[in-house]
Amino acid sequence: MAETMEAEAAAEREAINSVICQLADPDGNSLGAALYLPENAGPKELNQVVNKLLSNEERLPYAFYISDEELVVQLGAYLEKNKVSVEKVLTIVYQPQAVFRIRPVTRCSATIAGHTEAVLSVAFSPDGRQLASGSGDTTVRLWDLNTQTPLFTLQGHKNWVLSVAWSPDGKHLVSGSKAGELICWDPQTGKPLGNPLTGHKKWITGISWEPVHLSAPCRRFVSSSKDGDARIWDVTTRKCLICLSGHTLAITCVKWGGDGVIYTGSQDCTIKVWETSQGKLIRELKGHGHWVNSLALSTEYVLRSGAFDHTGKQYSSPEEMKKVALERYNKMRGNAPERLVSGSDDFTMFLWEPAVSKHPKTRMTGHQQLVNHVYFSPDGQWIASASFDKSVKLWNGTTGKFVAAFRGHVGPVYQISWSADSRLLLSGSKDSTLKVWDIRTKKLKQDLPGHADEVFAVDWSPDGEKVASGGKDRVLKLWMG
Predict the structure, then answer these.
(1) Of 149, 201, 339, 396, whose CB has the highest number of CB atoms within 10 Å?
(2) What keywords tag this UniProt record (predicted)?
(3) Domains in the chain, start-ordered, CATH in brackets?
(4) How many other CB atoms are found less than 10 A from the CB of residue 147?
């Protein structure tokens, strides 16, 4: 009799000290059956469990979330702090983390003068080795990042250069101006490839290349304009292949998606989805009550960087590039459809899965002023938004749920960019500063003053090594870890 009581007491003690947990991926798919885990299990032990259940040959790092909050303590401590019943099954979402870590940028390594008017756009090449800047002085400049000196000044535009975009294979650079012209350049020589491409009647608002996993070498890109049209161009024949018309007001942004469709956001409050062989309209995404300002894709980082990653590997043939880019894209996308987020003058954002539905997955509210820029983290796990309300907000990239607000800027936030490991976020503001935010702690990691005036453009190199910024003070700044 005494033995059974003792056995029961022991069993009870066991039960008290364990928690019923259900592990799930970010899309809500369960990983195995529910498990009893000891209360003293924390992220380290959960990492071992997930690696084992997924039969990973190499151990990969994961972060764990319970109701959108990262678990950084032992389960018992979490339950106590959040007054959660031990009887309930605790759903723990595991998120893969980048195996590599990017050093936060902490200092300005170079201030490069040269432009004679404001710097309006900056963009690193897909391999992170070159940097292009477009300016109100009508030139594009290419910078050598090893020596931090100007490589070429590209002359040919007659008006402000509003937009610059590298092809994802790194072979071409296209710039678009306030006069509506586009020029293709050879980044190796700094020479234009033929005459300017004309057709747009008003200024260029965006340029996006066809992903390299769909076509290599890269030939086609799309431009959007204030004239309400988007145009698909072939860089080899230098002709406009298709004009996408149908918007009733200016197109403000354009993205060429990984499935091969083009998304355009417009001041007519709609987002249109186009196929690219004949330029037919496939879908219209409606819901915004005011201008659409910014679009971002969950796969954007791999689309932009193609076959290049943080390791700096170079490729000898377009075929090899296409193959590696496709592997990277498929791995990033997983089984889920590509997601799109739109930010608007109506202070809201929408999260869409355009391949699945013309209705938004969720409406994201909280900003007190227009949303200027939206951007998915490289791993697709987060969405960041920059607003004229001086804040940057962080949202769950799968559900669109609000996660945190980053406050510290004292002026509108113009542009944001992510570190390649999705752990840090950069913002540039009218207040003349750049700020780096830590996604895990949800706090300011680094304040980067130094510009003498508004910061219009920021970019974090795809290899994670450097940050570039430009603005009203006409200088380009490079920042390092």
Answers:
(1) 339
(2) Nucleus, Repeat, WD repeat
(3) 13-96 (3.10.20.90), 107-480 (2.130.10.10)
(4) 9
Measured CA to CA, the distance from residue 203 to residue 224 in angstroms comes to 9
Residue count (the chain) = 481
Q: 242-276: string of b/e by CB count within 10 Å (b at 16+)?
A: bebebbeebbbbbbbbbbebbbbbbbbbbbbbbbb
Residues 188, 191, 197, 203: is their CA dihedral positive or negative?
Answer: positive
* C-alpha distance from residue 176 to each of 155, 200, 300, 374, 462 (Å): 12, 10, 20, 21, 22
Q: Which residue has the tokens 């510290």?
A: 408
Contact 203, 178 (CB under 8 A): yes
Q: Pick the closest to residue 102 from 331, 425, 382, 429 (CA basis).
A: 425
In tens, the pLDDT along 267-278 reads 999 999 999 999
C-alpha–C-alpha distance, residues 223 and 118, integer Å: 22
Q: Which residue has the tokens 């390092």?
A: 480
Count CB-CB contacts under 10 A for residue 73: 13
Enter the tokens of residue 90: 């605790």
Per residue in 390-425, pLDDT (tens digit) is 999 999 999 999 999 999 999 999 999 999 999 999
Q: What pLDDT shows up at residue 465?
A: 87
Rounded CA-CA distance 92/69 in Å is 10
Name the strand (E) or helix (H) holding 242: strand 239-245
User: Within 10 A of 388 (CB to CB), how many other CB atoms are there?
Assistant: 18
Hey, CA dihedral for 443, 392, 334, 315, is it positive or negative? negative
Strand-strand pairing, 182-186 and 173-177:
antiparallel
